[in-house]
Design goal:
With 161 residues, the chain is α+β, with helices and mostly antiparallel strands. Helices cover 19% and strands 30% of the residues. It has one domain (33-159): Immunoglobulin-like (Sandwich), CATH 2.60.40.1120. It has helices spanning 8-24, 105-109, 118-126, and strands spanning 38-44, 47-48, 51-58, 68-73, 76-78, 91-98, 100-101, 129-130, 144-148, 153-154, 157-159. A hairpin with a 2-residue loop joins β1 (38-44) and β2 (47-48). The longest helix has 17 residues, at 8-24. The chain is globular, with a radius of gyration of 24 Å. The N and C termini lie far apart (77 Å).
């Protein structure tokens, strides 16, 4: 089948439109499904948790969702699955929170060339002061869940003893 000269511009427009659609569907290059922003606050006995981490683990083992994590700073956090701040995939999650304050002064005193010795850092974190009860660190005991919706999400966690 031979196209006439008058149909070539239409074919070019159609091909350009198809190319634009393909590029729009490429996403962020991770190959993962769409993630939605999740941010929030973590407090303990009414006070912002100064530092720590939060992890969202998919509640359903058979899901295609992936864990998402965040760093708590002055009680605030946001989640990342693959790219900083990309959020989490929709679905139900079990949430764990870990917050410790390690005294790195001994590690700093023993540092050579600006680098801490690993055993000094490990010892400091082993003896670190827990800023929230240990039960929040484990999926089986945290009691925390969150259902990420296909929208911007705010997940606040007011922790107590």
């Amino acid at each position: 089948m031979r196209l006439s000269a008058s149909s070539r511009p239409l074919r070019c427009i159609a091909m350009a439109g198809l190319g634009a659609l393909l590029l729009a569907g490429c996403g962020d290059g991770t190959g993962l499904s769409k993630r939605y922003p999740v941010k929030g606050t973590v407090t303990y006995n009414g006070e912002p948790v100064p530092e720590g981490s939060v992890e969202f683990r998919p509640a359903d083992a058979g899901t295609t969702a992936r864990p998402a994590t965040g760093t708590i700073e002055n009680g605030k956090y946001y989640l990342t699955t693959a790219i900083d701040g990309d959020g989490a995939m929709p679905g139900k999650y079990i949430v764990t929170i870990s917050a410790r304050k390690a005294d790195l002064s001994k590690a700093q005193a023993n540092a050579k060339g600006g680098s801490f010795r690993q055993d000094d850092v490990a010892k400091a974190y082993k003896n670190a002061k827990k800023l929230v009860p240990a039960k929040y660190e484990l999926p089986d005991t945290s009691g925390l869940t969150y259902d990420v919706k296909e929208q911007s999400n705010t997940a606040d966690f007011p922790l107590a003893d």
